[in-house]
Amino acid sequence: MDSEIKEEVPVHEEFILCCGVETQVLKCGPWTNLFNEPRANKPKLLIFIITDSKAQKINDIYGLQGQVEHKLAFLRTHVPKETKLVVIGHSIGCHINLEILKLAPELPIIRSFLLFPTIERMSESPNGRIATPLLCWLRYALYAFAYLLLKPWPEKIKSFMIRIGLRMMNLQNEFSVLNVLEPFCLANAAYLGGQEMMQVVKRDNETIRTYLPKLTFYYGTIDAWCPTAYYEDIKKEFPEGDIRLCEKKIPHAFILRFPQEMADMVADWLKDDLSKI
């Protein structure tokens, strides 16, 4: 069993055009194309992960609704209709997760995980009170700062600054994060963040109630984006739901220090569903 867990999973990276936008796709597993793969090699289940991250062009692709439509277009265009889906959302990805369920009931989603879910009152959260004025009212000042200061920097300086930052936070540079200092990326992130503060206000109880048996919520105890009061409110509204509170003090940005712990938990929650496929 131990050897199976430690077995290395092949990862393929692709860039595709989806809704007219270059889209990075990471495929984990011994397959490259779901449509052309022989039936014997096709996966029975696809796990679709939406991070804190197109058959036709979408207006406002970098806005919140555009991101929802982008993920829907990817699933409808690049995934065979018969492939069962598990959707995992983190942070604002949980809002997108619920929107996918609401807008595409035809998709064969068997389970949906919402990790540290920012699905309500974002601007009222402790972090939201700080982020809202920055992203909504001072956004253009951030744009000017990014373009005037960071645009002239050579790649070597950007890479050096990122390495210093990661070292100060005691993090390993296991993935390429150079684009975090690209003004275009920073501007798009600020634009999307501003929309999140303004639009993610009321929890979508109707969609949650409709799909409650498929949903698992996981709230943090030290999360300044969705404080424990939000957990208590949704727990009262849906006492029969699978709504969990972290007991390990895992932070909202778990990918930086606790990726393995979260992966192990989600894999454990999925065991029963996988055994039925």
Short description:
Keywords: Endoplasmic reticulum, Hydrolase, Lipid droplet. Helix content is 44%, strand content 16%.
Written description of the protein model:
This protein is α/β, with parallel strands linked by helices and 277 residues long. The chain is built from 10 helices and 7 strands. It has a 5-stranded parallel sheet with strand order 3-4-5-6-7, sandwiched between helices. A two-stranded antiparallel sheet has the order 1-2. Helix 2 crosses helix 3 and helix 4 packs across helix 7. It is globular, with a radius of gyration of 19 Å. The chain starts with a helix and ends with a helix. The relative contact order is 0.11.
The count of DSSP E runs of length 2 or more, i.e. the number of strands, is: 7
| Apparent shape | globular
What does the largest sheet look like? Answer: 5 strands, parallel
Helix content: 40-55%
Radius of gyration: 19 Å
N- to C-terminal distance: 20 Å
User: pLDDT below 50 for ≥5 consecutive residues: which ranges?
Assistant: 1-5
Would you tell me the structural class of the helices and strands? alpha/beta
The number of helical segments is 10
What is the mean pLDDT? 83
Q: What is the strand arrangement across the widest sheet?
A: 3-4-5-6-7
Q: Classify the beta-strand content into a percent band.
A: 15-25%
H/E element string?
HEEEHEHEHHHHHEHEH
GO molecular function: sterol ester esterase activity
Organism: Neovison vison
EC number: 3.1.1.13
Keywords: Endoplasmic reticulum, Hydrolase, Lipid droplet
